[in-house]
Prior knowledge:
By secondary structure, the chain is of the alpha+beta class. The protein has three domains: 45-100, no CATH class; 108-152, no CATH class; 156-300, no CATH class. It has helices at residues 11-16, 45-51, 53-66, 71-85, 89-99, 108-117, 122-136, 144-152, 203-213, 215-224; strands spanning 179-180, 199-200, 235-248, 262-277, 280-286, 297-300. A hairpin with a 2-residue loop joins strand 4 (262-277) and strand 5. Helix 4 (71-85) packs antiparallel against helix 5 and helix 6 (108-117) packs across helix 8. The mean pLDDT is 82.
Amino acid sequence: ECDEEILHGKYGQHLSGHKEMKDRELYSYINKGGRPRQHLLSLTRRAQKHRLRELKRQVKAFAEKEEGGDIKAVCMTLFLLALRAKNEHKQADELEAIMQGRGSGLHPAVCLAIRINTFLSCSQYHKMYRTVKAVTGRQIFQPLHALRTAEKALLPGYHPFEWKPPLKNVSTNTEVGIIDGLSGLPLSIDDYPVDTIAKRFRYDAALVCALKDMEEEILEGMKAENLDDYLNGPFTVVVKESCDGMGDVSEKHGSGPAVPEKAVRFSFTVMNISIAHGNESKRIFEEVKPNSELCCKPLCL
């Protein structure tokens, strides 16, 4: 009743200006024709773009003003917040992992730890990896070759080290691969069968690797004894050497060389580590399960 002439398209906007008017909804325009609006997700990509055009423009303006033009980050965060608001935390966690560049799969080192802690052979792990990938359609576990690459970081000779003072008759070379365990022994048929194959690591390289592997526990132990800054040593490391049969290993060698039916493993376990502090010796590490296979460091096979 204001006697103004308004374009049909701008009628809704004009009506919103008449705040004083009672029963405004009686005057509001109702679209009775045409198809009902379909749900956004059921539209084609072109139709989705068309419907979201105005919102996209607003998001772009916000991103340029607040986030240095990173539209993707704004949209991802909006999606993340929407998922969290609806308690869709599993999906939200996966999205967050992708946003942080981690992907939704497990790290090879984590997969390796799972394989070792559940005592799975390579073939058993591979079967599990294939099944999970086929069922979920995603690569949650990593393939065996990725695990072998991660395993190299745990092998002796990976960490550079030096002995202070230098040891007599010991090579200063730290990059030591697997060497023949029988080299240097006087060959006698009485001592071992002729077809014995032995692979061993150099003892000092294996010991350094074991200690490097335990770095966090050592530092935690020092912190517990209030020795945060006291890192010079000398450290006393008590080692237990052991040897156990490994049974039939013809199925367990993975992609390595073929091995005979039976194998024996020589290994050592770091039992405890102490550090000299003043006149006393403080123990900063002690192996809780010294007989467990999990803390055995291989020395010779």
